[in-house]
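User: Quick one: structure for sequence A, then sequence B.

Assistant: Sequence A:
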Amino acid sequence: MFPIWTRRTNTCISVPTPASSWRQSLSASSNLTATSHNDGCPGRPARTLAIPIPPSAAAALVAVLFASCGVPASQGPSSTDLPTRKVAAASGVVFGLAWLKDGSLVFVQDPNVVGSGTVAPYQTIRFDPKNGSVQRVALQPDVRCLQSQFQTPSALPDGRIALSEDCELSPTKATPDRHRIVGVDSIDGHQQVLVDNLPFLPQESSWNPAGDHAVTSDFELSLCPALVWLGANGAEQHAIIARDVNRDWRLDEPKPGTRGSDCQGLARAQFPRWSPDGKVIAVVASPPSPKDGMARINDPWDLYTVAAGTLVPSPKVTGLLHPAGLAWSPDSQKLAFSARLAGLDGTWVYDLRDGNPRRVSRLILQWLVWSPDGHNLAGLVDKGASPGAPINNELTIIDLSGILGS
């Protein structure tokens, strides 16, 4: 089954088999936020798509989907399958994930009952994986908002949560929505505005150790994301130029909030992550292409590291298909990512010292995070929501003790 869920719309598209035709069905929930799809290669979820597909494009697209399963990587990976633990307290319509310094996990849950006709605010939940306790985090919406939703949590260097706030100012959109990032203490609820008046809804933000600059991407453009720099006064411009044999191209977006959804001729970059030591930014990126819309769904991505001082990118792992998450180890020596690599779906650990990716699980983990003690990875696994139903994710933790020190 190949469901593609949209964000803020009620459309779901599914492809049961390559020989079957595309069909569209209505999603029972009108406020789905961070969802996933499987692109025809087994077990490969990715980010939300919001692109209509005409039936006439079905055959060509399905051919591309199945032809692309198995793009090789530039390195020779090794593979194992480490123990995992499923967390029932964080399953269902959950999205976003952050692992805080105190050891707690934070995720967002949609409390709305399918078919109720009501739209309640999302709930930010704090979960302690040691004792299983669950606590709702109190948040203070912008008083100017008719409706406000907090989402895409990330861990701040000082132990707080960073959350993106999507603020509706006008029911007719006569006044554009307002977007900002706030820092929240998950214990006492103290809240601080970190970045205000953004022209786009940020994906999870990743901050330097000083907590005064961050990198993110545009949450609305799941098919055509780009790296965006953030400072206290909003979006900033710092060019990151990648060079290959044919051209130079930028990994960052010089004009955030202005991209369309087709991104023809534009580069793509997502999951920018600042290393804990502040020296390097990791990101997965795909060069410009003459293709547009869904035609780019199976274009490969490469994993880059960018020196924070020089902004010079260096490719590390090539040929990733549908990357679903990226996370630094606490010592800034390893990167974890979920993607298809060398024909294998799964979650991988890449050691910057030896340059070899190692598969640690067959599972694809969205919203991938690394525990502060370095012993575990966590993410949300798509349990296979059917068309017309809400997303169905489950928090899963991978035990890395089997490879630590190896």
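Sequence B:
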Amino acid sequence: MPEDRTTQGGNYWTLFTPGIWKLLHAVLQATMPETASELARRLARNAEAVCRHYLSNGRRHGRYWLVGDVTNTPGHSLYVRLSGPDFGKGAAGKWTDAATGQHGDLLDLIAANRRLTAPRAVFDEARSFLSVPQASLKRPMPVKPGSPEAARRLFAMSCPLAGTVAEAYLRGRGITTVNDLTALRFHPRCYYRDDDCGGTRAPDPRPALVAAVTGLDGAVTGVQRTWLNPDGNGKANVAAPRRAMGHLLGNAVRFGAVLDIMAAGEGIETMLSLRMIMPALPVVAALSANHLTALVLPSTLRRLYIARDNDPAGRRATETLSDRAQADGIETLTLTPTLDDLNDDLQQLGTHALAAAVRVQLAPEDVTRFWIAERRIMARR
């Protein structure tokens, strides 16, 4: 082993070859066979808690925890299986670093992460971890597919948009400002099941844009998944590239905090198109015409813009929501697109044409509040 790499702050553990790892693992098992095996099984039963504690720079992807290496470097070359049997193929707690060939169980991982060479020190560290209150070590209980809790877990497992296929997809739709879209995330392997196969075909993992559906209190009640082509060039070529789950009725995907004025419409891309020309205007996407009619409105709202889709369902939804809002004393104004919806206007006619068409449909005071102020902000950038 080169002296300069071990005496001048080098990463001692990453220099271990797969053969040395096998030897270390054998020493751990041979020193106290029953204790080592039992400790490894107990750790494996709490594999996700182990990973969150020792590999906190990683994140969960389905049944695996991904991180850069045993020393907790960010990345995804090392993967830990979070669920599975206690023994044999596919056992929980088994890990492999694809970049180095290192592999082992969670005792080995703790030894490497804490740089422990003495078996007794490894056992003590493992026992210390397992001595914390068991409530914090329990695996999440299974939840009903399609439930609000399943939706919350999926959103939590997803990652921010920046640099992902989902960002590329939105940019392809003309939506170039994505840094502050906290209601949207990306999942690289979101399962899609083809209903036409009658449930006989295994679901396919596909990249997806994941949108959080929330209530007025901000709590996530559901998600909408939009499956994408691997390069982000449009939606995936599947029978139903968009699906929602959870409690949707009355709720929406929200962008911006609402005070007294907001805009509502059906699709996420439609409402983000409006936000491209008026980023300070709070907007919500109800995800469908039927859900738009049932949207729960904030008690502080005094003016509602409805971004209408140019089809019969869109016109009916606009009329129904407008009637409901006016009955509650809320002024309503309709934003009518030139083409089928505001995103079509943005993509085919351009930002300036969309801005000119929307501006004349705003209340005069909102031109001053949202339009002129935004033009000044953008001019200073």
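Confidence is low (pLDDT under 50) at residues 1-15. Residues 375 and 381 are 10 Å apart (CA to CA).

User: Thanks, that's what I needed.
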